[in-house]
């Protein structure tokens, strides 16, 4: 799933390549991707792109006051093209959901792999009209140690769950929460409201270090290379069975119905692996 660094990089790419161009046509290949009825997508035709930014994990293309807001979900992506085909695409079962043509015969496709569809597009006058944006907590890159402590105070869910709750902290998903917890040397099952001051210090520093580093690696990359760049920078996420690059212990995995997360026992749980993946709590 694209998270804060990748969406920030896509917004940067659009600022560099789309701002100043005019929307000449939008091809909606899958009507289900549109989550708003009015304004219609045709009202974007002829509008000049004036900005691109990120709200948490939402991408926002400002077309002279009318916003095309995108949430890429788990398997969605934005594919930029310097030469889009003129012929409208035919609706079908392929990955293409929506195509945006810009002046100069350039533009981008919104695609989504797999059968479980979550890619969503809104056309709104104000990004705050998008329910997911209206519910966002403070942006992860704008948190300082004091604010983080205030947000986590009294919370009893698992720390992994808290970090990925967009209404609490915006922008962190499954992959970067694994990386943040590994960097901070904290268990994914730690209780947020019981973290010591020293643990909160480490967590705040890890959030900034991991996300800032990922943004710096991602911004300026071609959109097609961002997924590979993300994978290359990960130390534990997606590396189950491989040695931890810090201590050499084997990276372990906890699996659920539709997702999994990874951690290092030596770095994060005192050398003890988490027991039964569905029933156990942290082994202290």
UniProtKB/TrEMBL annotation:
It catalyses: Hydrolysis of DNA containing ring-opened 7-methylguanine residues, releasing 2,6-diamino-4-hydroxy-5-(N-methyl)formamidopyrimidine. PANTHER family: FORMAMIDOPYRIMIDINE-DNA GLYCOSYLASE (PTHR22993:SF9). Signal peptide: none annotated. Residues 2-93 form the Formamidopyrimidine-DNA glycosylase catalytic domain. One of its GO terms (molecular function) is 8-oxo-7,8-dihydroguanine DNA N-glycosylase activity. PROSITE patterns: FPG_CAT, ZF_FPG_2. One of its GO terms (biological process) is base-excision repair. This is Fpg/Nei family DNA glycosylase.
